[in-house]
Design brief:
- The protein is α/β, with parallel strands linked by helices and about 425 residues long.
- The chain has 2 domains: about 270 residues, Thiolase/Chalcone synthase (Peroxisomal Thiolase, Chain A, domain 1, 3-Layer(aba) Sandwich); about 150 residues, Thiolase/Chalcone synthase (Peroxisomal Thiolase, Chain A, domain 1), CATH 3.40.47.
- It is built from 15 helices and 14 strands.
- The protein has a 10-stranded mixed β-sheet with strand order 5-4-6-7-1-8-14-13-9-10, sandwiched between helices. A two-stranded antiparallel ribbon has the order 2-3. It has a two-stranded antiparallel sheet with strand order 11-12.
- The two termini are about 15 Å apart.
Length: about 425
């Protein structure tokens, strides 16, 4: 089996329009949570969100593409371009856009001019929980309006191809000239972590040398906000403290949008390219609870943690940090606490644990990918991020939850992702 490493990271989140900007905000303990502005919210109880701020899709897409693509596809393309740039595979988006325009003008070519052997033979796996639901809602509104006016609904011809869950992966492949494995994964909030885990398995087993993998989500539409709200999942607090994982007063998560994509590749390939290596993927645990559609199971989550550790050859004393799923729901945080204890025994009480959802909100599929990236950077820079808004200790969440960013030597760390349907994905990373 082959060694698998991460050589590039790209992201757009409520904390910044690049991974570097987002990671800097994480280290500072800043919050990206603010009042929801995408639609009129006064009738609703749930008024906070993790919205992108100042995101410019025009750096990566044409005007026509920006018109017909769902936001979750736009975010995935942006994150993938930045990951490719970070990995040293392409030039910056600004330079590339200028160059591509010149090539198209001279050669009337529709293909990207930055195709390389590495990219053309690479794969792409992008996870999404809700796919193009924002566009679906907009197009449904046209149908409802047509029933009142008795005119044709004039649906977009791009409705079906731009809203399918695989649209992000296939469009990333199209834009970057990727011609290998291409998968869209929809596994609730675990989707982004699952994408990384499946990429890891492809490379480890020799089926691919490089895969772009991550998650993208654009759920800030009325249907999603009210849907999650009426299920009891969302916080009713209307300020930046609404997301407060593991706090005794927590009352639900804050819905957020964004994307994160990692360039994952065979270690020997990375060495040959003289690429910067952020860390090694050491293990992947993927389980299902077979228990309940929305209620999590500590036993199921613990099995995923244990399987990931077993694959990585780790003992509890080897784990230096855990980036928790930590959604800020009463049952979810309590269950994750129990799961960590089950998997790691007495060592669980000593390991520093934090949740960056306290800053970003819950980006659904994108969270698992972004948190994996944060875990890698924690190892790479020796920094344990904080869990902000954790002010009142919950006796049922009694582990070592970090409330202030601090320096620490981290050799091995775990990133947890758990989703509706009892699906669990756990990744283990190690310093190279």
């Amino acid at each position: 089996m082959r060694k698998v490493v991460v050589t590039g990271i790209g992201a757009v989140t409520s904390l910044g329009n690049s991974f570097h900007e987002s990671w800097t905000s994480v280290k500072k303990g800043l919050s990206g949570i603010a009042p929801l502005t995408r639609f009129n919210v006064p009738p609703m109880k749930w008024k906070m969100s993790g919205e992108l701020k100042g995101f410019d899709a025009g750096l990566y897409l044409s005007q026509k593409e920006m018109t017909h693509l769902d936001p979750f596809v736009k975010y995935a393309v942006a994150a993938s371009f930045m990951a490719a740039e970070d990995a040293g595979l392409i030039q910056s988006a600004e330079a590339q856009k200028r160059r591509s325009a010149e090539v198209r003008k001279k050669e009337a070519s529709r293909l990207p001019d930055f195709q390389t052997s590495e990219l053309s033979s690479a794969g792409v796996i992008v996870g999404s929980s809700r796919g193009g639901i924002t566009t679906i809602e907009r197009e449904l509104e046209k149908i409802y309006a047509s029933r009142i006016t008795h005119h044709a609904s004039r649906l977009s011809p791009y409705l079906m191809p731009s809203t399918s869950v695989n649209a992000a992966a296939s469009y990333v492949a199209q834009k970057l000239g990727i011609k290998g494995h291409c998968l869209g994964i929809s596994n609730a909030c675990s989707s982004g972590a699952n994408a990384i885990g499946e990429a890891y398995r492809l490379i480890k087993s020799g089926y691919a040398d490089m895969v772009f993998a991550g998650g993208s989500e654009a759920p800030l539409c009325r249907l999603c906000v009210e849907g999650y709200g009426v299920s009891g999942a969302l916080s009713k607090i209307n300020d930046a403290s609404a997301s407060r994982p593991f706090d005794k007063t927590r009352d639900g998560f804050v819905l957020a949008e964004g994307a994160c994509v990692l360039v994952i590749e065979h270690y020997e390939s990375a060495l040959k390219r003289k690429a910067e290596i952020y860390g090694e993927i050491l293990g992947y645990g993927n389980t299902t609870d077979a228990f309940h559609q929305t209620r999590p199971s500590a036993e199921g989550e613990a099995r995923a943690i244990s399987l990931a550790m077993e694959e990585g050859g780790l003992l509890p004393e080897d784990v230096d940090y855990i980036n928790a799923h930590g959604t800020s729901t009463p049952l979810g945080d309590k269950t994750e606490t129990e799961a960590i204890k089950l998997a790691l025994g007495k060592r669980a009480y000593e390991i520093p644990i934090s949740s960056v959802k306290s800053m970003t909100g819950h980006m659904l599929a994108a969270s698992g990918a972004f948190e994996a990236a944060v875990t890698l950077m924690s190892i790479y820079e020796g920094v344990i991020p904080s869990t902000i808004n954790l002010n009142t200790k919950d006796p049922e969440c009694d582990l070592n939850y970090v409330t202030e960013t601090r320096k620490a030597e981290i050799k091995t760390a775990i990133s947890n992702s758990f989703g509706f349907g009892g699906v669990n994905a756990v990744l283990v990373f190690r310093r190279v």
